[in-house]
Each structure stands twice: as structure tokens, then as C-alpha cells.
Write a structure and sequence with these properties.
2 copies of one chain form a homodimer.
Chain A: H1 13-20, H2 24-32, H3 39-52, H4 58-65, E1 70-75, H5 84-96, E2 100-105, H6 110-121, E3 126-129, H7 136-143, E4 148-151, E5 160-164, H8 166-178, E6 183-187, H9 194-210, E7 213-217, H10 226-236, E8 241-244, H11 247-259, E9 269-274, E10 287-290, H12 293-309, E11 318-322, E12 324-326
Parallel strand pairs in A: 1-2, 1-3, 3-4, 4-5, 5-11, 6-7, 6-8, 8-9, 9-10
Antiparallel strand pairs in A: 10-12
Helix pairs in contact in A: 1-2, 1-3, 2-3, 5-12, 8-9, 10-11
Chain A binds a DNA duplex (30 and 30 nucleotides) through residues 12-14, 22-26, 28-29, 32, 36-38, 41, 56-57, 59-66.
DNA sequence: ACATGTTCCGCAAACGTTTCCAACATAGGG
DNA sequence: CCCTATGTTGGAAACGTTTGCGGAACATGT
């Protein structure tokens, strides 16, 4: 009967004005453009505001200002450790520019992705999209209304910051080649994912260039469990080294190989992709291609802020950062099969 | 010079009204209370809205309605895998109730915690706080203005949902006792953390009750690296089993023990806390106390939604869910020292 | 034909801000 | 002493919605 517990009704600018004995306009000015109001009046206003615990109503402010001071970030999966440094870096930068951040996770689902983006677009000034699966036209329909920066994927629709995996992939292939591996497997990630297509393409090219036979398997779920099946198929295919779509599946592969009594790196070399924090903590620590994800986050955030700053589209409408190989302990010389 | 790239100015309700040949009020009603408007007019309005790509202005709506349809969630650390199931579950439930979610991470820092909460409070209808370090008075000053549910921590200020670690801890101690361990270490987490104090208290009580000597060490950082030092100190203390503050440090402990050539569980039993996804994937898989974190998330979200639903404070103003031990492969019979 | 009820719709106020404009006071220059 | 520039303030409009109130149109019962 009593309805929702009545939270103390927030003080408005009028209340502050009344208490300070000035008009609401003066209060607004005292708070937002200190230069325009007499110092002693200002002090009085500030005290009244403090006393009443005045907090400006964001909705009213947004309404007249036409902006929300909120930014959005969409990532495929919060649980994927690959994204956590990304999220943290974006959040830090955004907060420093005194914006708040909306974060949404799409469970790696295209429909959720566009739905989340659409819903978010209505209440932010701009957003960073890390949406590897969203079709181009959907993306465009959003970018028309809202300033958008695309992360980790190329785009002609909006400014994008991507990673150039070329150097890392070539280093990886050169590394296994130098160790004597001649027949390797690539464990694909989700079929529709742009990242997967890109990785597959570069591995194919690098292997061909360096004379390594590449067996491509999959697709597998880009999670730990995906590595189980991947390991089995790779073993069946008789390869001596495995390039996993990402570190998570590499970890799954190692676990499965261990279960089957196949020693890493003694009998099978395993390479990951991404260099998530966990990679260096595994036993043995994982050799992997390090993605400069934090740098991407910073660049994306800067780009978005520049876009909103009204300085026109940022100079480089696209930016690309290089990945590189990190050699740890899951790669070793190939041994002749059967030994 | 040209200013920010001018995004197409959004269509207002007036534009839709004009196109449909009705008044703005009718448009509003057609969209929000279909029953109050004639079916054919409604159809006309809907078509006009569609044609113009009309999206209601959230700020204006919030202003008159007095609510934002946004909820907030504050967690100490997104990178901590313990929280990812929590975040996901909250997000799913919140979205289902057609709210959007603001997510903030506080880097385990008290100041950031209260600052984030304060900033967030201004633009959400309610929030879930997972803030183990926030002082009670700060918490109260926020809960006065905004409906709040506290997760994973007791509170007399706001409705809370906590986990009862008692059963899990007692099972863990009984387990190692049954295996013959009589001298164990507890690796403490952050000193100020409520969780840590709680875990320490329960382990102390359970060990005393069951006749196990407990050496408490630390505090250690609640991350992987924290386990390195923890492992060394535990070995130095001459214990045969280690209770880690959480799974992350347990993983660090295992890694460090492995480096030092100390076999787990052969020479040292290790128990974690939380049962993060990774725990079951380690090699060997970790024996740990499982926290019902997803259940907590669901309960918190339901509680908050009930609070907002205006049904008054939800029936149980506090709720408690039980933790339990999950036995895997890092615990084994104690061997006489020196063998 | 009239009274009464129902259905549908428009008018206008309200939400809490910001900001343009005008008004006033004061000071300074001629 | 007047004119103008400057500094400070209040009034009022505007942002885009929702909603209470009243009126028009129409149907129904007498």
C-alpha cells in the first residue's frame, strides 16, 4: 500500500536558488561558468548547494545540452580474458575525460550484438564497437546516427583501429619452421568471425611462403572446451605443431594432450594467439602471438573522444598496430614421428 | 572549421505527429498505451514513426517520467574471473526486464569505488554494489538517494545477498583432516576486505573445532602473482596443506610449487576458494570451495527489480546462499615430513 | 428529439536544466 | 553631467516527452 520506499526527493536547482536568494539561472552559472558570476554570490550558491546535497538532474541537462556524457562499449564476451585489458584501458581513458561508460556483452551472438548496439546508441554520445560479427549494413545504420569507432575490425563505414597480425604470424611460422616442423594444423575459430578469417588467411600465406604444410581444422568454439576436439583432430591429422585460433583453445589443447599422455612440447608443439594474461601462467607457459590490445583500446578511446571533441574526423581515420610473437615453452624441435 | 561531423538530427515526436496528421500526444499514446487510440490512427502513427526512424529521446522521457531505465553494477575487478559469471547473470536478468546496465570496475580501490558509485547513482534507477571495501557511512550516503542492493557482503543499510561460506569451509577442513593433515596454512587476501576477514574467521573456527593447526600468512595480493610469495612462506612454515584466499592465488601457489619441484598433491595439498571456471581446467584440477556466485547474481537482480517495482522492500531483506566444497585433484593424503 | 455514456483526440502544463536577451547598477571617460 | 562600457543578475524560452483535463463525435437508450 505504501508503494516504493520513498527515496528523499532530490533537491532541484530552484531549491538551491531559493535558499541562496538568487535566481535559478545564477545557480546554473555559478556551477558551470564560474567566471560569469560575482565571487561572493557564487560562494553563497555553492554553500546552499552543498547544504541541500544538490545533484544536477542528468536527464534535464542532457535534454537541453543534447548530449549525455555517456559512452558505450560493446564486446563479444566479458568472460574472454582477451577483452579485459581492453575494457579496463577504455574505461580508464573514458573516465579521465569525465564520461561514464556503458558496457554490454553480446555472448558472441550477432542478434544480441545489433540489439545491444541499437539500444545503447539511444543513450550515449558515442560508442566503441568490438563486434566481429555484425553485418556491414547493420553497422552502417547505427553509425549514421551515432559516432562510432570500430575496434579490432576493418571498416569503411566508421573510423577503425585494427591490429596487423602479419608480423606476428610470420614470426610464428618462421619459428616452427626453424624448429623443423613441416606439417602443422590451424584450429579455426567461429566461421563468421572476421578475426578468424584474417588469422586463417595470414597463416595460410605465411606457411605457403615458408614451405610449411598447413592443415586447417574446425571450426571450434573459441573457448577452452573447443580445444579438446581440436587436439584430437590435430593428432589424428598427424601434425607436429598446432596453431590455435586463440590462447583459450590452445589451453584446452594442452589440457587434452596432457590427458592423452602426449607431452608438450616434446611430442607436440602448441602456439596460441592473443597472449592473454593466463598464457604466461600456464605450465608450461604458452608460446603465443601477442596482440597489442591495450594499445588498441587506448587508440580507440582517443579516436572516439576526438570525434566527439568536434575536431572533425580524427586524422588517421584508421589505425593499425602490429602483433608479434612471444616465445615461451610450448614449442620445441620437431622429432621424427614414431619416436 | 566544419565542427563535428553533423549526425542527422533525430526525428522528434512532433515530426511523426505532423507526418501522421495527428497531435504529439496521440503519437505518444499510440506508442505507449495502444489501448487508448483508435486502431487505424495507431497504424498510421506506427508507419510514420517507422518511416522517419523515430527513436524516443531518452533524456526527455526520463525527465518527465522521473526514471532512467538504467541500472548500475559495480564490481571490484572485471579481470577477476570470479566476477564474470556474476556480471553475465546480472546483465541477462536486467536486460530481460528491459533495463540497460552501467558497469563499472573499481580496480579494487576504495576511493574509486565510492567515486564510481556516486557518479553512477545520478543516472540509474538503482544499483547493485559489489564493494567489499566501501566504508559503511559512504555506503549509507548513497543508499539514501538510490535504491541499492549489496552483493557479497552483509549490510544493515541496504538489502543484501551474501554467501554462507560456513558449510564449504567446514567441508574443506574436514576433508584435509580426513586425509591426515594436521598443520595447514591460510594465505590471507587484502587486509581490509570483508571477504578475507570472513574466510579467515571461518577457517580459524573450523580448524579449531576439528583439531587442525592453522598458520595464517599474508596478506597477499589476491592475484596469481600473490601465490608465489604465499607458496614460499607456506613451505617455510612447514605445512602440508594450503588454504588459499582464492583460486587465483591457489593457481599461483601451484605454479610456484611446480617451479620449486614440489609435487602437488604428492608433497603439498592445495585448496582454492571460489571455483572460478579456470579451476577445473588446471592441471591437476583444483580442489576448491565453490561459491554460488551466479545464484547471488540472480538473487541480487531480482531483489533490485522488486525494490524498483514498488512492491516495497522485498520480503527477505537479506538472503544467504551456501558454499560447498568441490573435491578435485590437488588434495591427497599427508605424508610424514622428510619422506 | 433528448439525455447519457463511450471513444477518441488535442491542448497545455509539467519535468529540471541551460542560455539568450534584457535590465539594472556601477564606473570611467569625455 | 551625460554617454558608454562593463559586470552582474533575472526573466523566459527551449529541449522532447508524458499525461490530466476537457471537448467533439458518435452510439445508445428512452
Amino acid at each position: 500500500m505504501e508503494g516504493a520506499r520513498e527515496v528523499a526527493r532530490a533537491a532541484t536547482i530552484h531549491a538551491v536558488a531559493a535558499l541562496a536568494g538568487v535566481s535559478p539561472s545564477t545557480v546554473s552559472r555559478a556551477l558551470n561558468s564560474p567566471g560569469l558570476v560575482n565571487a561572493v554570490t557564487r560562494q553563497r550558491v555553492l554553500e546552499s548547494a552543498e547544504q541541500l546535497g544538490y545533484q544536477p538532474n542528468r536527464a534535464a541537462r542532457s535534454l537541453v545540452l543534447g548530449r549525455t556524457s555517456n559512452l558505450g562499449l560493446i564486446v563479444p564476451d566479458i568472460a574472454n580474458p582477451f577483452f579485459t585489458p581492453f575494457i579496463k584501458a577504455v574505461q580508464a581513458q573514458v573516465r579521465q575525460a569525465s564520461y561514464s561508460l556503458f558496457l554490454a556483452d553480446t555472448d558472441e551472438d550477432v542478434e544480441v550484438e545489433v540489439e545491444a548496439a541499437r539500444a545503447m546508441a539511444k543513450q550515449v554520445d558515442g560508442m566503441i564497437l568490438c563486434a566481429p560479427r555484425m553485418p556491414g549494413n547493420r553497422l552502417r545504420s547505427i553509425a549514421v546516427h551515432t559516432p562510432v569507432v570500430i575496434a579490432n575490425r576493418q571498416s569503411r563505414t566508421a573510423p577503425a583501429v585494427t591490429m596487423d597480425i602479419g608480423p606476428g604470424v610470420r614470426q610464428a611460422v618462421a619459428h616452427v619452421h626453424a624448429l623443423g616442423h613441416r606439417r602443422c594444423a590451424f584450429l579455426s575459430g567461429p566461421r563468421g568471425s572476421w578475426s578468424n578469417q584474417q588469422r586463417l588467411r595470414f597463416f595460410t600465406a605465411a606457411c605457403q611462403a615458408q614451405g610449411v604444410e598447413l592443415i586447417v581444422l574446425g571450426p571450434f568454439e573459441p573457448v577452452f572446451g573447443g580445444g579438446y576436439r581440436g587436439a584430437d583432430e590435430a593428432v589424428a591429422a598427424g601434425v607436429t605443431a598446432i596453431f590455435a585460433y586463440n590462447d583459450l583453445v590452445a589451453l584446452g589443447v594442452m589440457s587434452r594432450l596432457n590427458d592423452r599422455g602426449i607431452r608438450v612440447p616434446g611430442e607436440m608443439s602448441v602456439l596460441g594467439f592473443d597472449d592473454i594474461p593466463m598464457a604466461s601462467m600456464m605450465n608450461p607457459p604458452l608460446t603465443t602471438v601477442m596482440m597489442p590490445i591495450t594499445a588498441v583500446a587506448r587508440a580507440s578511446a582517443s579516436m572516439l573522444l576526438a570525434l566527439l571533441g568536434g575536431n572533425g574526423p580524427p586524422r588517421p581515420a584508421a589505425q593499425e598496430l602490429a602483433a608479434r610473437l612471444v616465445i615461451r615453452s610450448t614449442t620445441e624441435s620437431a622429432r621424427p614421428a614414431g619416436l
